[in-house]
Specification:
- The complex is a heterotrimer of chains A (219), B (257) and C (225).
- With 219 residues, chain A is mainly alpha-helical.
- Chain A has a domain of 147 residues: Orthogonal Bundle (MetI-like fold), CATH 1.10.3720.
- Chain A has eight helices and no strands.
- Chain A starts with a helix and ends in a 10-residue tail after the last helix.
- The C terminus of chain A is likely disordered.
- The mean pLDDT of chain B is 92.
- Chain B is built from nine helices and twelve strands.
- In chain B, the strands form three sheets. Chain B has a six-stranded mixed sheet, with helices on both faces.
- In chain B, helix 3 packs parallel to helix 5 and helix 4 crosses helix 5.
- In chain B, 36% of the residues lie in helices and 28% in strands.
- Chain B has 257 residues and is α/β, with parallel strands linked by helices.
- With 225 residues, chain C is mostly helical.
- Helix content of chain C is 78%, strand content 0%.
- In chain C, 37% of the residues are buried.
- The C terminus of chain C is likely disordered.
- The chains are: A mainly alpha (219), B alpha/beta (257), C mainly alpha (225).
- Chains in contact: A-B, A-C.
- At the A-C interface, helix 2, helix 3, helix 6, helix 7 and helix 8 of A face helix 3, helix 7 and helix 8 of C.
């Protein structure tokens, strides 16, 4: 099989992989901020709820979570298609890790910033969203970048619940032909490029968010 | 308006097992300028932080413009202040910090307009015009679009003062505002405070280590030691004829440096 | 809608089998982490090499391995190694894949641990005329280890949680067994839930252990300068 043919066969898989990334990323972000903020709440019940979610999803394996959602939820009458199961499992899994990033980012902002915001009589919500969060976001971007790459990598797991993503196609091509080096080599390069592209995008975003801020200094 | 802008009435404050003040009393008149001096760790800054609602109190009562700061009356009974009460009370107060605490993600202009717009509800144009006027007052009208990271320490602190003034407080709290500055930058900041003092429009409390400045600007100086005002009076008296042994020891150690 | 019907009898039947399979999982983790430590040290040293080609190659190898999926790397070894005349068992393949993958992560831990020891320590060692070997052994590594051990521990826990991917190349570890039990009995609830719980308990215990160990060796009295 010529390499161009292998490439075009893989392309369809790459599109599905990217689709899953694009769908799971907003869910992960939402979960990261929701759980991260809940863990900083003054209400103990909210803190506990978030801690249980985070510990549960960080303590078990992504693949087991995926299987559980895909194979076990239908037993409760909640049957969902494979793509939804993949997006939900990966979004919840990466979101749990992300919530730690959100929490750490918020805690890393100098206390003086909250004090200045109180002295200027901002309300608690305004303190968070106008003063603390914009500064915290800059520090969150590098670990978010790493998590985004972890998400791209984790999408390969959906091949195990029969979604025809990049990894799935690679494996089925490899079962058909003997050009296994070319196939898996290409696939690895594909994932690598996807990760690098995401990384570059997030770095540009970090630069924009951090405009004017000199990090680490007292200002 | 009440006679006193600020009253501490038998206030007790603890940090863990550490008793910082007990039954502490202090009254400050309208438009009075009071300097608080004393060695570090004596609780001077905590007084300001209590007023700015950055620290709570354990017992007693603090009144700001005649109204209790940390307690509110509901159906005739006293209870701890809620966020809404504190929000209303903070409207009287402004604070300038030792480490400036400017918002690093905002330009100088936005540092000054953000709270007037989003707390006081001023229009963008009003807030901007007022900010530019304040920047003129502190001599930084050309830095409106700079970020805090581009300013010197003295410039940052002058922005800090402008930012506090933009909220039109009746009481200004200055917490060691020159302690973090290089010596050659201290004067430009004190010059601004001198101008404000001359206006006689604020009650000001300064916690400071600048003895000469405290002497020049204050109506009253309080020497603070181990959670008590050991000695207080007009600056000439405190600096020229201190009565208390500890005051003398503190001043001589300070002036000999 | 089917009711929540947890079958205790079935759960008790699969639990001992799962615990047996857990030994396979732990074996893969243990061997994988040993290989990862060796790989990590090797890469960290190569990255400190004087020759730019060597240090750049080590950097890009690390970057490449870390930004591509473990599962694809497992498949690569599983399909390609026999082409190269290497016939390996699924366990062997899995251990090599885990070791290579996490070796890339550990190399970064080792490198930043060594870089985290202040320049002053190197200068003091030169001033005392210590040999480079002595400097590493007696001055740098003991200080670097404090930050390296908890970070490495966390990556090894992460590796442990990725071992279920070895089911894709038919290694009979916990998840593979659960899948087989599930499909034979048409019941996935109990085996998958139990596997999840076993992972949860073991990884929570391990990360609590690391946290306690960190607390026993506080950073105070130990200023890096």
């Amino acid at each position: 099989m010529p390499v161009t043919e292998i490439l075009s066969a893989l392309m369809g898989g790459a599109v599905i992989t990217m689709k899953i990334v694009v769908m799971a990323l907003p869910l992960a972000t939402l979960m990261a901020f929701t759980a991260g903020l809940m863990r900083m709440s003054e209400r103990r019940s909210l803190r506990w709820l978030a801690a249980i979610y985070v510990e549960f999803f960080r303590g078990t394996s992504a693949l087991i979570q995926l299987y559980w959602i895909y194979f076990v939820l239908p037993l409760f009458g909640l049957s969902i298609d494979a793509v939804t199961a993949g997006v939900v499992a990966l979004g919840l899994n990466i979101g749990a890790y992300g919530s730690e990033v959100v929490r750490g980012g918020l805690l890393s902002v100098d206390k003086g910033q909250t004090e200045a915001a109180i002295a200027l009589n901002f309300k608690p919500r305004q303190r968070l969203w106008r003063i603390i969060m914009p500064q915290a976001l800059v520090g969150m971007m590098p670990p978010f970048g790493n998590l985004a790459i972890e998400l791209v990598k984790a999408t390969s797991l959906v091949s195990l619940i029969t979604i025809a993503d990049l990894t799935y196609r690679a494996k089925s091509l490899a079962d058909m032909t003997l050009q296994v080096e070319q196939i898996f080599g290409l696939v690895l390069v594909f994932y690598f490029l996807m990760a690098q592209a995401l990384n570059l995008g997030l770095r540009a975003l970090e630069k924009r968010l951090g405009k004017g801020m000199d990090r680490g200094g007292l200002t | 308006m009440t006679d006193y802008a600020i009253e501490f009435d038998k206030v007790t404050k603890r940090f863990g097992d550490n008793l910082l003040f007990e039954n502490f009393d202090l009254k400050i008149k309208q438009n009075e300028i009071v300097s608080i001096i004393g060695s570090s760790g004596s609780g001077k800054s905590t007084l300001l932080r209590i007023l700015m609602t950055l620290e709570t109190i354990d017992a007693g009562m603090v009144r700001v413009q005649g109204e209790s700061l940390w307690h509110m009356q509901k159906n005739g009974a006293w209870q701890p202040a809620n966020e809404r009460h504190l929000h209303r009370m903070r409207g009287q107060l402004g604070m300038v910090f030792q480490h400036f605490n400017l918002f690093p993600h905002m330009t100088v202009l936005r540092n000054i307009t953000e709270a007037p717009m989003h707390v006081l509800g001023q229009s963008k144009e009003t807030a901007r015009a007022q900010a530019l006027e304040l920047l003129r007052l502190v001599g930084l009208e050309d830095k409106a679009d700079a970020f805090p990271s581009e300013l010197s320490g003295g410039q940052k602190q002058r922005v800090g003062i402008a930012r506090a003034l933009a909220m039109k407080p009746s009481i200004l709290l200055l917490d060691e505002i020159t302690s973090a500055l290089d010596p050659e930058l201290v004067d430009e900041v004190l010059e601004v405070i001198r101008k404000l003092a001359a206006e006689d429009a604020f009650t000001m409390i300064l916690v400071t280590h600048e003895m000469y400045f405290a002497r020049e600007i204050s109506d009253r100086v309080c020497f603070f030691d181990a959670g008590k005002v050991v000695e207080e009076g007009p600056p000439e008296q405190i600096f020229n004829q201190p009565e208390h042994e500890r005051t003398r020891a503190f001043l001589s150690s300070f002036l000999s440096v | 809608m089917i009711e929540f019907d947890w079958d205790w009898a079935f759960a008790w039947e699969v639990l001992p089998l799962l615990l047996d399979a857990c030994l396979i999982t732990l074996q893969a983790t243990l061997l994988g982490s040993m290989l990862a430590i060796v790989m990590g040290l090797l890469l960290a040293l190569l990255r400190r090499s004087r020759w730019k080609t060597v240090s750049y190659s080590a950097y890009w190898w690390m970057e490449f391995v870390r930004s591509t999926p473990l599962l694809v790397q497992i498949y690569f070894l599983y399909y390609v190694a026999p082409e190269w005349g290497l016939n390996m068992s699924p366990m062997m393949t899995g251990v090599i894949a885990l070791g290579m993958h996490y070796g890339a992560y550990l190399s970064e831990v080792f490198r930043s641990g060594i870089d985290g020891v202040g320049k002053g320590q190197w200068e003091a060692s030169i001033a005392l005329n210590l040999s480079p070997y002595r400097t590493y052994r007696d001055v740098i590594l003991p200080q670097a280890l404090r930050s390296m051990i908890p970070a490495s521990g966390n990556y090894i826990i992460a590796m442990f949680k990725e071992t279920p991917q070895l089911s894709a190349i038919t290694l009979l570890e916990m998840l593979q067994l659960a899948k087989i039990m599930g499909s034979e009995n048409f019941r996935y609830l109990e085996p998958f839930t139990l596997v999840g719980l076993i992972y949860l308990v073991l990884s929570l215990a391990a990360s609590t252990g690391i946290r306690l160990a960190e607390r026993r060796f506080p950073k105070e009295g130990f200023t890096l300068s």
